[in-house]
Design brief:
Elements: H1 2-13, H2 18-33, E1 36-44, H3 50-60, H4 66-79, H5 96-101, E2 108-113, E3 117-123, H6 131-138, E4 143-149, H7 156-167, E5 172-178, H8 187-201, E6 208-213, H9 237-243, E7 256-258, E8 261-266, E9 269-275, E10 281-282, E11 286-290, E12 294-303, E13 306-308, E14 310-311, E15 316-321, E16 332-334, E17 341-352, E18 364-368, E19 371-385, E20 390-392, E21 402-415, H10 422-425, E22 426-430, E23 437-446, H11 458-466, H12 474-481, E24 487-491, H13 498-511, E25 516-520, H14 521-525, H15 536-555, E26 559-563, H16 569-579, E27 584-589, H17 593-599, H18 601-608, E28 630-632, H19 642-650
Parallel strand pairs: 1-3, 1-4, 4-5, 5-6, 24-26, 24-27, 25-26, 27-28
Antiparallel strand pairs: 2-3, 7-16, 8-9, 9-15, 10-14, 11-12, 11-16, 12-13, 12-15, 17-21, 17-23, 18-19, 18-22, 19-20, 19-21, 22-23
Length: 657
């Protein structure tokens, strides 16, 4: 229990009163504020000892209070998995399920400090199914500790986590070969593991790799060098963590200031507040605002503590300018001689984090710095099997899958490659319906116009335009809308319920996400066919116009619902020819004349009294369709369009295949 005594001694020596004590505390806090902060990620397979290592670091560095230690000893006896030893993993595994199973499920963050440095450690789960949790923990880390069980060696999960660390741009890795006590601290086993890991890591972009043999449970080589590992002449784990240099990892060359908030406390002050993403800015620097490309100079750099002459990451500051420029959230301030890419097209590596598989037709929201806009995934180039680094073609991503894809945003965004600048090279995708974060991405580079999935040359553009052809393909529209452009032509007598079906069908398809337009007789006759009457000749011209409108809409990928009597078989055939027989779907409302008269008594009474002429079913014969794609009767409940929607599903019209 010497640790308890040390902790108590430290606590008793803490100044608690008087002027001298107050000064000492202020001096201590000032010194502590100047300490460098190291963000650490731990990764490894299940039961490799990640939580135990962190708990041991905190315990041996005297960062556990007496009440925490008492609770740890009590919990170790009750739910621990270390036999008679103290189970240091319980300091991090706080969830009930974690303690019961002896595993880490969610990311646990712990803070501690030594005389040289402050640390924030993210303890990430080792299971493959929790890959997204690890990505979350690694997003802000400077250094990664990958643990390997000395009795197991380099395994699939070791390669998986190493690849993810490389993908996320972490430049410093410590390979901690744990449980050396179980292999009698064998140097040959340690060397064999290191050689195998080196052969794998050389394929990746990780410039700094350190190898340390440890026993987290026994505390060997954690804080002090172990006498049981005399053949190892390197630093202990804590010594290395205290001295590793990470300050130069930040990008201090490219000034990027994504405006988060316009600070206007009074009429005399207008500042632009944000966290520095990268680079250095000085008072008096010439700057440019994107996307407007207007320029000015920095008037002042304001913080809560006062004004600064210069600022750098990760400081949060407010910049004022010498010129009045309209700047809003989502815009970016940069140096005019060092601009990011301002593009709509780019390639990125994507980690899918949603339980729901990716729908290629979905337009997601992209959150990039302080900028949010719509984005679509144009093409998935490949998926990476991070167990063996092989690549395969897929059409959509599923949970925890990683791959390379091509993106197009609704408006230009301001970015650098992730390798060059993490702050402006990373983004998240947001599901437009659930608002869940469904993926995270690391931008590789902008996409050249020649590499666009739907590339068309200038000559092809001219030819298509001269011929009146769309530059957007049918396949592209189908992918965007997730439907096939088609016409649902609903025919039947007045009073058969065709209009009720049409309007309810439009509403239900719209609610399901379809892009749909409804055309009916009264709407068209009030405008486009205003000069036409109900004679057979004018009726044919009226329906010809409707057919041409439907064809145009169908060619734009839109579903058209047309509610027209169309009593003559020949006219229906002509309409089908105009629209295209492959897009024409005839729906017949099969209601006899008696039913229709009961449904529209005033209309038929006027026809019988001679006040209305050319009424189908009374004055004009109605050719009953014998080739309709779908026939409904009043008994089917006209205002219930489920049968039509089932028909669209079966034909893969909506949603499309």
């Amino acid at each position: 229990m010497s640790e308890n005594n040390n902790i108590s001694k430290q606590n008793n020596n803490t100044p608690t009163g008087g002027t001298r004590g107050t000064l000492d505390i202020q001096t201590f806090l000032a010194q502590d504020e100047q300490k460098d902060l190291l963000r650490i990620l731990t990764a490894g397979s299940v039961d490799d000892g990640k939580s135990t290592l962190i708990g041991r670091l905190m315990f041996d560095s005297k960062m556990i209070y007496e009440d925490q230690l008492a609770a740890l000893e009590r919990d170790s006896k009750r739910v621990g998995h270390a036999g008679e030893e103290i189970d240091y993993a319980l300091l991090l595994d706080g969830l009930k399920a974690e303690r019961e199973q002896g595993i880490t499920i969610d990311v646990a963050y712990r803070y501690f400090s030594t005389n040289k440095r402050k640390f924030i450690i993210a303890d990430c789960p080792g299971h493959e199914q929790y890959t997204r949790n690890m990505v979350t923990g690694a997003s802000t880390a400077n250094l990664a500790i990958i643990l390997i069980d000395a009795t197991q060696g380099v395994i699939t999960q070791t390669r998986r986590h190493t690849y993810l660390i490389s993908l996320l741009g972490i430049k410093h890795v410590v390979l901690a070969v744990n449980k050396m006590d179980l292999v009698d601290y064998s140097q040959s086993i340690f060397d064999e593991i290191c050689s195998e890991y080196k052969a794998f890591v050389t394929q990746l972009n990780i410039p700094d790799v350190e190898f340390i043999p440890i026993s987290a449970l026994k505390g060997e080589n954690i804080v002090e060098s172990s006498e049981k590992i005399p053949w190892y002449h390197g630093k202990s784990m804590l010594e290395f963590l205290e001295e590793v240099h990470v300050a130069s990892d930040r990008n201090f060359e490219d000034f990027r200031f994504p405006v988060q908030y316009v600070n206007r406390p009074n009429r005399d002050f207008r500042g632009f507040a944000a966290k520095m993403a990268s680079g250095i800015v000085h008072k008096g620097d010439k700057i440019m605002v994107l996307p407007s490309r207007k320029t000015s100079t920095v008037k002042s750099i304001v913080t809560y503590e006062g004004e600064l002459d210069e600022a750098f990451p990760p400081q949060s500051i407010t910049i004022t300018l010498n010129d009045e420029i309209d700047i809003s959230r989502g815009e970016m301030i940069v140096h005019p001689d060092n601009l990011p890419h301002v593009e709509r097209h780019f390639e990125a590596m994507l980690v899918w984090m949603d339980e729901k598989p990716m729908n290629p037709a979905t337009q997601f929201y992209i959150k990039h710095n302080t900028n949010t806009t719509k984005v679509r995934i144009d093409k998935i180039k490949y998926r990476v099997d991070i167990n063996n680094l092989s690549k395969s073609e897929i059409s959509f991503f599923e949970l925890n899958e990683i791959g390379r894809a091509v993106f197009t945003t609704a408006k230009p965004i301001f970015f650098d490659s992730y390798k060059k600048n993490k702050g402006t090279g990373s983004f998240v995708l947001i599901d437009p319906v659930s608002n869940n974060t469904c993926a995270v991405g690391m931008i590789i580079d902008k996409l050249d116009a020649n590499d666009l999935p739907s590339k068309i040359s200038l000559e092809e553009y001219r030819d298509k335009i001269d011929q009146g052809q769309c530059l957007v393909s049918k396949a592209e529209r189908q992918k965007r809308y997730n439907q096939k452009g088609t016409t649902l032509w609903i025919t039947g007598l007045h009073g058969s319920g065709k209009n009720e079906l049409a309007y309810h069908l439009e509403k239900q398809l719209f609610d399901l996400g379809a892009t749909v337009v409804l055309l009916d007789g009264s709407t068209i006759r009030s405008g486009l066919s205003r000069e036409l009457d109900f004679s057979p000749t004018d009726r044919a011209e009226h329906l010809r116009r409707v057919a041409h409108i439907s064809r145009i809409l169908n060619e734009q990928g839109i579903i058209t619902i047309c509610s027209f009597i169309t009593p003559e078989k020949d006219i229906r055939n002509q309409v089908a020819e105009i629209i295209g027989k492959e897009r024409f779907n005839l729906i017949y409302m099969d209601a006899d004349l008696d039913f229709c008269k009961q449904n529209r008594p005033d209309l038929y009474r006027m026809a019988e009294e001679g006040k209305l002429n050319d009424l189908p079913g009374v004055h004009i014969p109605f050719d009953t369709p014998n080739n309709s794609d779908l026939t409904l009767t009043p008994a089917d409940n006209n205002i219930n369009p489920e049968k039509v929607i089932d028909y669209l599903n079966a034909k893969h019209i909506f949603p499309a295949e």
